[in-house]
Design a protein that fits this description.
The complex is a heterodimer of chains A (249) and B (277).
Chain A lengths: L2 E10 L2 E11 L4 E5 L6 H8 L9 E9 L2 E2 L7 H7 E4 L10 H11 L5 H14 L3 H4 L12 H13 L5 E5 L7 H14 L4 E5 L3 H7 L2 E6 L2 E7 H6 L4 H7 L5
Parallel strand pairs in A: 3-8, 3-9, 6-7, 7-8
Antiparallel strand pairs in A: 1-2, 1-4, 4-5, 9-10
Chain B lengths: L1 H38 L1 H4 L4 E2 L4 E2 L2 H31 L3 H13 L5 H20 L6 H25 L3 H9 L4 H12 L1 H17 L2 H6 L17 H8 L5 H30 L2
Helix pairs in contact in B: 1-12, 3-6, 3-9, 4-6, 5-6, 6-9, 7-8, 9-12, 11-12
Classes of the chains: A alpha/beta (249), B mainly alpha (277).
The structure holds adenosine-5'-triphosphate and magnesium ion.
């Protein structure tokens, strides 16, 4: 168990976006979070690296444990948390810097300024997302000149450069075409060997293809959480069944 | 039909604005250039300014303009950027909504008021605490620095705000602090807007006249320290044009031509940078 929530509630002002969420995420698995638009998937994901802290008027009750420690306890080191739990966003958000500086960004934030080491990190991270051969002669060009898929890969590489333990991915393929999506999914299977991945997706086929365990959310509640096989073939809850058989959402 | 008339009318207005501008430029050069050719560059670029006796050296004024502008930039840019970063990244929405209009209001204060504040407060302060006459490069730099703050702050604030939220999120998600995000990501991302703001501020500092006349001391020599008095190109024009005739008058237009060229170049650079965003 790497992440665990207990009686988690989240409010945006008066609006309750997460309702009594209890879930357990296992190490080195891909956990998929599915559910219709607005059910709180992104909100839940952003609880894990405390990105919701950036939004005003957010209130959280209950607890979230990462590696047995409550990340919402007052003394918890958020900066360290965000190094250990990295995030890939819905739209590729490569920085308007060079390819090299994008990857080196995280290590530099963490105080690494040795050029040799940075070179190594950049090569290793780009290789991990299968971009190195492609970009090795273009490390100085702007990352914004790359295609959307490559930018998303770059964002993943940028994350790997800080050596996280968990990768949070919020609909990482929604801005990509099916071929690019396939490639990113392959990459995720590869990354699973070394990282724990939590992926939010609208796309049930995608969840079925890549996730080991799946949580189904509806209106802020976690309706069902089980192995992907169980969720997609024999769900316990009628609402899950309705969703996966395409009745709503 | 009405639309057509309005369109024609607006076109005439727009063209006359452009035409006026063209005429002004033409007039300045037409008055100034002949003297520059007649006197020769070595005469113009000397420090001997006695225009009624054939000495047209404007070097000390050029140096004066450059020193005062550079000083204003050092002060305006450091305070301006600090202010911008605080406003944009470290203050709440309410503070932003109150402070930004106040800073922009600074741009609307007439320069004679700045000059007056300079004489009453800053000149005696510099004289007693740093020495010299008080009417100095330093005093003028400080006042000009304050005067260009609104330009720098409002333009660079807008370009910082224009950096997409997703970049900030990406940076925080990597464990960066706010400060690291500002220095490593936001400033590079907003760089062209910030530079444009600085250059426009610089244009304003070079062109400022009234406040500078009141506090810079207007001594006609190359200053040895920042506590010495200086005279700028603009001051010279404003102070002497009232009684100048003949070559003297032409020499003032020559000063104007130099100013004009400097400011046009600065604006072109600023537009280039702004366009890059
Ligand atoms: N900053 C915010 N302030 C107020 N309400 C918010 C905020 N962010 C999200 N919400 C609300 O919280 C609910 C859950 O939002 P969330 O973005 O987590 O949904 P989601 O499941 O990720 O949806 P989607 O599939 O469209 O991305 C929605 O009803 C949304 O309107
Ligand atoms: Mg979402």
């Amino acid at each position: 168990m790497i992440i665990e929530t207990a009686k988690l509630n989240l409010y945006y002002g008066k609006f309750q976006a997460l309702k009594n969420i209890n879930l357990q995420i296992k190490r080195n698995l891909i956990t998929g979070i599915i559910g219709p638009s607005g059910c709180g998937k992104s909100t839940l994901l952003r609880v894990f690296n405390r990105m919701n802290d950036l939004i005003e008027n957010v209130r959280i009750t209950g607890s979230v444990f990462f590696d047995k420690e409550d990340i919402y306890s007052p003394l918890y080191d958020i900066i360290m948390l965000r190094k250990r739990i990295g995030m890939v966003f819905q739209r590729p958000n490569a920085f308007p810097l060079s390819v090299f500086d994008n990857i080196a960004y995280g290590p530099r934030v963490w105080g690494m300024n040795d050029k040799m080491v940075l070179n190594e990190i950049v090569e290793r991270s780009l290789t991990a997302v299968d971009l190195f051969n492609d970009l090795k002669d273009r490390l100085k060009t702007s990352a914004l000149a790359l295609s959307a898929e490559k930018q998303q890969r770059l964002c993943i590489a940028r994350l790997l450069a800080v050596e996280p333990e968990v990768l949070l991915m919020d609909e990482p393929c929604s801005a990509l075409d099916p071929i690019a999506t396939g490639k990113i999914e392959e990459l995720m299977q590869e990354l699973k060997k070394r990282y724990t991945i939590i992926i939010v997706t609208h796309n049930m086929q995608q969840a079925a293809r890549i996730a080991d365990e799946v949580g189904f959310m509806l209106l802020g509640e976690l309706i069902e959480f089980d192995s992907a096989k169980k969720i997609f073939t024999n769900p316990r809850d009628k609402r899950t069944f309705d969703y996966i058989s395409g009745r709503f959402g | 039909m009405k639309d057509k008339i309005a369109e024609k009318f607006l076109m005439v207005v727009a063209f006359s604005a452009i035409l006026t501008l063209a005429l002004i430029s033409f007039f300045i050069f037409q008055q100034g250039l002949p003297l520059i050719f007649k006197a020769g560059l070595h005469n113009i670029f000397s420090t001997h300014w006695a225009p009624t006796r054939g000495h047209f050296g404007i070097l000390s004024m050029i140096v004066g303009s450059i020193m005062v502008t550079a000083g204003a930039l050092i002060i305006g840019v450091s305070f301006g950027l600090a202010c911008t970063i605080f406003l944009s990244e470290f203050s709440s929405g309410t503070i932003q909504k109150t402070l930004k209009p106040i800073i922009e209001l600074l741009a609307g204060i007439p320069s004679v008021v700045y000059g007056f504040m300079g004489i009453v407060i800053l000149v005696p302060f510099v004289r007693t605490h740093f020495g010299g006459p008080g009417f100095s490069v330093l005093t003028a730099s400080i006042i000009l620095g304050i005067m260009i703050l609104p330009t720098i702050v409002s333009i660079s604030y807008d370009s910082l705000r224009a950096v997409p939220k997703t970049y900030r999120e990406g940076s925080f998600a990597l464990g960066a602090t706010k400060w690291q995000t500002v220095v490593m990501l936001l400033i590079p991302a907003a760089r062209s807007g910030i530079i444009a703001g600085i250059i426009l501020g610089m244009g304003r500092a070079i062109g400022e006249t009234m406040a500078v006349i009141m506090i810079a001391g207007n001594a006609l020599k190359i200053p040895h320290s920042i506590l010495d008095s200086v005279r700028t190109l603009t001051s010279t024009i404003a102070l002497e044009l009232g009684y100048a005739t003949g070559d003297h008058r032409a020499a003032l237009f020559a000063c104007g031509s130099f100013l004009f060229i400097i400011i046009v170049i600065l604006n072109i650079i600023a537009i280039r940078f702004k366009g890059k965003e």
